[in-house]
Give the backbone structure.
Amino acid sequence: MTDYRLTYFDIDGGRAEPIRIAFHAAGIGFEDNRLSFPEFVEMRGSTRFNALPVLEIDGAPVTQSNALSRYVGKMANLYPDDDLQALYCDEVLGAVEDALHVLVPTFGLQGEELRAAREKLAEGSLRTYVRGLGELLARGGDYFADQRLTVADLKAFVLTRWLCSGVLDHIPADLVQREASHLIDHQQRIGSDPVVSAYYESR
Ligand SMILES: N[C@@H](CCC(=O)N[C@@H](CS)C(=O)NCC(=O)O)C(=O)O
């Protein structure tokens, strides 16, 4: 039996969360190796790109969260077989990744610098990503691709849940509601999906 060990931060979110949910949906056991930030700093240099998540498959490390989401998503039947629907799914994975790339660097800032950077994002590129994701959802309907739950829904759900949670200082918690309110309906639909609720009940 293949041995899977997924290393990420000890948060119920971020880049590893869709992979964890997909593992659970597939009924495949994996070691959910959750690190504190100091523990990550200790081992950062031993990762291939100084970053997490890392999935070890029989001890061999593989990186890149979207590639991992697709890999585990295929095993969980959460990735489309149809090439065009797979493309739609990938477009969402990439867009959410781009949104994270603009948001995450602000975590190094404080005070007025943080306020200015976050307000600029909320009025600028983050708003563009939220609107764009709204367009992609409108294209798909209730789901982003294949008219069913895929890893694209999981990836977007984790992002919008985070944006709406109010934990991001200076990012208005109603940004998603204002820019693409159907993403809120989507967040609720995915959060209450049997696959997703079963994962959180298992936590
Ligand atoms: N393209 C990579 C990005 C990985 C990434 O930036 N991970 C963040 C956490 S979500 C990280 O480890 N940051 C630590 C650092 O930059 O020191 C992926 O999708 O896995």
Notes: Strands lie at 4-9, 31-35, 54-57, 60-63. The mean pLDDT is 98.
